[in-house]
Amino acid sequence: MKWKALCFCLLILGSSHIGCSGLFRTMEPPRINIVNVTPKEIKLFEQVFDLELRVQNPNEAALPIHGLAFELEINDRRFATGVSNENVTVDAFSSLVVHVEAVTSSWVILQQIAQLQRTGTPLVNYRIRGAIYSGSPSVKLPFDNMGEFKTPVGPAK
Q1: Distance (Å, whole) CA 13 – CA 19
Q2: Mean pLDDT over residues 83-88, rounded?
Q3: Phi first, then psi: what are they for 9, rounded to 5°?
Q4: Where do the domains of the chain lie, and which CATH numbers do they carry?
Q5: pTM strictly above 0.90
Q6: Shortest CA distance to 130 belongs to which of 53, 64, 23?
Q7: How far apart are CA 123 and CA 118, in angstroms?
Q8: Maximum mean pLDDT: which of 20-24, 52-56, 109-113
C-alpha cells in the first residue's frame, strides 16, 4: 500500500512539473524602434509628442501588451519620458506599430538644439529603454534599444 501511495505521489509531482514547465520558458526581450515623431501639444514649458514605436516580437509565442513605459535619450542625454495603456497583441515573430505619448520640457529641447549647433553633425543617436507589461498578472519585460537618424536640417554655420 505504501508503495502505491509513493508511486501515485511521484506521478502527480512529475505531471505537475511537466505542466508548469511552459510557464517558465525564457522570452527574448522585445525590440523597439522609433518609426515617427509628431508634435501633439506645444506649450511654453512642456511639449507632448506622439511617438510611433515599432514593437518586434522575436519569440514563438504572441506578446499581449497591456502597458508600456519608457525613457528616450538623444545624444546620451535624457530627452523625454512616456507611457501608454494601449492594449495590443504582437503575434509571434511579428511586429506592430504602437502609438505612445512622450513628454519633454522646452529647456531640454533648447539644450538639444544647442548641442547640435556645437557638434555640427546632422546625425542624432537615440536610446529608448523601458518596459512592456504583458500577461495576467502583468509581467515586466524590459527593453533597451539604440539607433540613429539624420536631422532634416543641418546645423547653422
Answers
A1: 10
A2: 93
A3: -65, -40
A4: 29-150 (2.60.40.1820)
A5: no
A6: 53
A7: 13
A8: 52-56
User: Rounded to 5, what percent of the chain is helix, strand, coil?
Assistant: 25, 50, 25
Average pLDDT over residues 79-98: 95
Task: Tell me how far apart the 2 most distant CA atoms of the chain are, in Å.
Answer: 92
Q: Are 77 and 111 in contact (CB under 8 A)?
A: yes
Q: Rounded to a whole number, what is the distance in angstroms from the first to the last CA of the chain?
A: 92
149: its cell numbers: 537618424
In angstroms, what CA-CA distances link 26 with 21, 36, 40, 57, 141?
Answer: 11, 31, 38, 13, 11
Question: 117: burial class by Cβ within 10 Å (0-12, 13-18, 19+)?
Answer: exposed
Tens-place pLDDT, residues 59-74: 999 999 999 999 999 9
152 half-sphere exposure, CB direction, 13 A CA radius: 1
CA–CA separation, 4 and 134 (whole Å): 42
Kind plus residue range of the DSSP H or E element containing 138: none
Amino acid letter at 77? Answer: R
